[in-house]
Design a protein that fits this description.
- The chain has a 6-stranded parallel β-sheet, sandwiched between helices. A 3-stranded antiparallel β-sheet has the order 7-8-9, covered by helices on one side. Strands 10-11 form a two-stranded antiparallel sheet.
- The protein has helices at about 20-30, 75-80, 95-100, 105-110, 135-140, 160-180, 195-205, 205-210, 250-260, 275-285, 290-300, 320-325, 360-365, and strands at about 15, 35-40, 60-65, 85-90, 115-120, 190-195, 230-235, 240-245, 305, 325-330, 330-335.
- The relative contact order is 0.15.
- Helix 1 crosses helix 6, helix 5 crosses helix 6 and helix 5 packs across helix 7.
- The chain is an alpha/beta fold and about 375 residues long.
């Protein structure tokens, strides 16, 4: 049952003010790790146009309904805050303050609270109050400009790089670090300002170092890791599917060209002037067989080659299936919690929280009877 997790965060209480995208994902990760996450949903719903029963980013949580614009709403949230370790919100800067649940209001009731703020642009700066989505945040950080083929528009990597990598994961890191500080002798709660632009920029640290060292060209498709290298990229197979190649090191490359069947005629990998010729040779060979046939050739070898699978295919991959990387809960196939812990294992124990469905249970467990009063 949600709220009774056994993971490493068991006993940690989190209040999540309902939002969309990276905030709910960060709260899901905390819930996966065992925290008791109570999502404060608004009456009438909101957010993404998806049936709440399928929104797996709300798994392992519990939900209460509170109208923050009602006279009693802010007080109900602050009553939860008094009993919480963490609060997560994803409003535009200043909105939580206007609603009466900003950092000052919360810390007045609970000085140890970690107040996690999830935004795209951050709490300060010229664009702080502007609307935006993942694609804009990764665009201005330089991350989007690195992805795709030269001479073509940048390729959009869903919302994985900004919302979830640069946003959710950095919020969780910040929250856990601040929670550790709050629990040290003399420690106190604080505000964690997690901006997607900051996190996404941070993800490019290695690339900036390579640019400074002259080892990375500031343009798409011209580098070792961005598709510019013929032995680090994707190739179409005879059935219109794709194989991914990552044979960077010499010993892996040697295995790759041997198994591909071009070891004798392949141009030297170190001769960049002939990379175009090498790419054509590799592409021609891959087009000669199906994805399944090439998978059988490379599976279990050190050639660093793998089939490019769809979302529906991925759970059936033998390695992922053996590890239980995906799980089925409530009829929904979904990624299992990650990472893994030897002493405090995690699991999906509850399906997506339905708005308001857990109000009575949370009121009793957290000792906040006012949640059940009409108008809360």
């Amino acid at each position: 049952m949600a709220g009774t997790g056994n993971g490493p965060l068991a006993g940690v209480r989190v209040v999540e003010l309902a939002g969309i995208g990276p905030g709910p994902f960060a709260a899901m990760l905390l819930a996966d790790l065992g925290a008791d996450v109570v999502r404060v949903d608004r009456p009438g719903g909101g957010g993404l146009a998806i049936d709440p029963a399928y929104d797996v980013t709300n798994r392992n949580k519990r939900s209460v309904l509170i109208d923050l614009k009602s006279a009693e709403g802010p007080e109900r949230v602050l009553e939860l805050v008094e009993r919480a370790d963490v609060l997560i919100e994803g409003f535009r800067p200043g909105v939580a303050e206007r609603l009466g649940v900003g950092p000052a209001d919360c810390h007045a009731r609970n000085p140890k609270l970690v107040y996690g703020r999830m935004t795209g642009w951050g709490q300060e700066g010229p664009l702080a109050h502007s609307a935006g989505h993942d694609i804009a945040y990764i665009a201005v950080t330089g991350a989007l400009g690195m992805i795709g083929n030269p001479g073509e528009p940048p390729a959009v990597p869903a919302n994985l790089v900004g919302d979830y990598a640069g946003g959710s994961l950095y919020l969780v890191i910040g929250v856990l670090a601040a929670l550790q500080h709050a629990r040290t002798p003399g420690g106190a709660g604080q505000v964690v300002d997690a901006a997607i632009v900051d996190g996404t920029a941070h993800l490019t640290a290695m690339i900036h170092g390579m640019v400074a060292a002259g080892g990375w060209q500031d343009r798409r498709g011209a580098n070792l890791l961005d598709g510019g290298c013929p032995f680090y990229g994707t190739y179409e197979t005879s059935d219109g599917q794709y194989m991914a190649v990552g044979a960077l090191e010499q010993q892996f490359y040697d295995e790759f060209v041997r198994l591909l069947g071009i070891a004798e005629e392949a141009p030297a990998r170190g001769d960049m002037a002939r990379w175009g010729e090498l790419r054509e040779a590799v592409a021609a060979r891959f087009k000669a067989r199906t994805r399944a046939e090439w998978t059988a050739v490379f599976e279990g070898t050190d050639a660093c080659v793998a089939p490019v699978l769809s979302l529906r295919e991925a759970p059936e991959h033998p390695h992922l299936a053996a590890r239980g990387t995906f799980t089925d809960f409530g009829g929904i196939t979904q990624p299992a919690p990650a990472p893994r812990f030897s002493a405090t294992p995690t699991a999906v124990t509850g399906g997506p929280a339905q708005p308001g469905a857990d109000t009575d249970a949370v009121a009793a467990d957290w000792g906040v009877p006012g949640l059940t009063e009409k108008g809360a």
